[in-house]
């Protein structure tokens, strides 16, 4: 049995026991990972996905994090007073050994899904709760001297309404990290909170 999987923008035809070099994955050596983007399963009864085969997966063990061969990019311009430039690059790769091809039941396997460097949260983990939007009428940029960047920093500090800013004491202002709250903002917030 073989499978055609997709990872790192490329497609690979694999069988159990194959050693494969793929684009860098967020996994350490010795971990078991699972590729869920299976385009085709081959064997006695081939299955072609549209675009992926539902419930199919390929499990692999990470052998090592490696670098590819050095690639030289050389540019030379002809004629007098010409210039030359040489650049080199070694692509970061992950060496994996294919251990198993699952035709179905991939969702229940409990194995970590293979993901690239900028990994999204895993399916089992809940996404972080969205921050509460400021109440209507509490547009922090209405304060003189508060621009979009300062308003964002105030919201990150938990100050989303004029009433919260108006209630700040000098000790509270000193305890806020990341932004210096000006006393004028507190006075303006008191007036705007009244109406």
UniProtKB/TrEMBL annotation:
GO terms for biological process: translation. Gene3D superfamilies: 5' to 3' exonuclease, C-terminal subdomain. Keywords: Ribonucleoprotein, Ribosomal protein, RNA-binding, rRNA-binding. One of its GO terms (molecular function) is rRNA binding. Signal peptide: none annotated. GO terms for cellular component: cytoplasm; ribonucleoprotein complex; ribosome. It holds the Pfam family Ribosomal_L21p. InterPro entries: bL21-like (IPR028909), bL21-like_sf (IPR036164), DNA_repair_Rad51/TF_NusA_a-hlx (IPR010995), Ribosomal_bL21 (IPR001787). NCBIfam families: L21, PRK12278.1-1. Part of the 50S ribosomal subunit. Contacts protein L20. This protein binds to 23S rRNA in the presence of protein L20. Belongs to the bacterial ribosomal protein bL21 family. This is Large ribosomal subunit protein bL21. It comes from Phaeobacter italicus.
